[in-house]
Known about the structure:
By secondary structure, this protein is mostly beta strands. The protein has helices spanning 4-16, 18-32, 169-178, 346-350; strands at 69-70, 73-74, 82-86, 91-93, 97-106, 111-118, 125-128, 135-141, 152-166, 182-189, 196-201, 206-208, 212-220, 231-235, 242-244, 251-257, 262-263, 271-275, 279-287, 310-321, 324-325, 329-336. The strands form five sheets. Strands 12, 14, 15, 16, 20, 21 and 22 form a seven-stranded mixed sheet that branches. Strands 11, 13, 17, 18 and 19 form a five-stranded antiparallel sheet that branches. A hairpin with a 2-residue loop joins strand 20 and strand 21 (324-325). Mean pLDDT is 75; it is low at 1-37, 46-51, 53-78 and 340-351.
Amino acid sequence: MISDKVLKKQTLFSKWGPFSKAATLSVAFFWIGCGGSNPTKDYGNLTDKAVPAQNFTPEVKYVEVTKTVYGGTTDMVGSDVLVIRPQTGMFFAEGVLATYSIYANILLSNVTFDLIAEGLPAGAKLERSTSNPKTWVLSWTAPYGTVNKETTKELPIVLRIANIKADKQDKLDLINKINTPVSTSLMVLRKLGQPVVLKVSGLSETVEEGSETTFTVDVKAAGRSPENPPRLILNFDRNGAINTDPKTGQSISYEENGLRYIMMKPEDKGATYINSEGVWRYKFTFIAKEAGGIGPRHKKDGSIDTNATEMYVRFTFVAASGELESEPLTTHLKIKLTDSAAPASASEKKK
């Protein structure tokens, strides 16, 4: 057992540190300087046996300099502690649902947080994954028309850690100090949707000869900017002039080319963008007369009808967007002829 006196000496020398070694060297040099005399001759009790060294454990202190220790693990500093890692290349085609994963984590124990996104477009959602609490899912269906005349559009967003809770204030202070937002972008690709002729409005089934009727045609062509309407094509299928009953196959009427009676007045030129779903409205006028009078009328079998009191016309609308074309929408119309317009009978012509 080590005595208190020895412990005091050891403590003294351990506190002196390097100075104790210097003192030992000074004593050694002093012995050498005595010449041939024996400095121990007056100390009969001393022996030649070596004195065993005393064992002791020096006190050691660990000084924290640049790193903080939590739970026995040295936590990294800066961006290595707080991680926000969005998926590379988040592309969204108009009209198509797309989802992307965003990883976020704080590498400290007993810490909870949320991930928020600033600048998300309308309809986009950022939600924590139900299967992985360190992953958030960004989902969005980019509306048609998000991209104008360009082929792509970049939408910048900012990802940020929020609603942070920790079991110790120093952790919270550290996180707030290094909580730097991450900027990224959503890339939207323009996609032209299949065009559709929705409806023809304003025309009744029968019009009087000589009348003028304004009507409209609504067309949906998703993926186009408001100032870039689709094309509207007017057709008449001359080969199918005889209108037949689809159930019986019997001839119903002979339909003339209705395009001869349709015009677009100067004030109605162009199309009007009517809603954000990519719908345009075209305005036309149906004029039930011609400069040279109403054209020839035909019977159901296609022969000329000299005593007709009415005639049938038809015309077809097709919408085109890029290389895509809609299904045709055909309008059938009856023109009721006036007495003055009715052709003279053969007996009347002889008079």
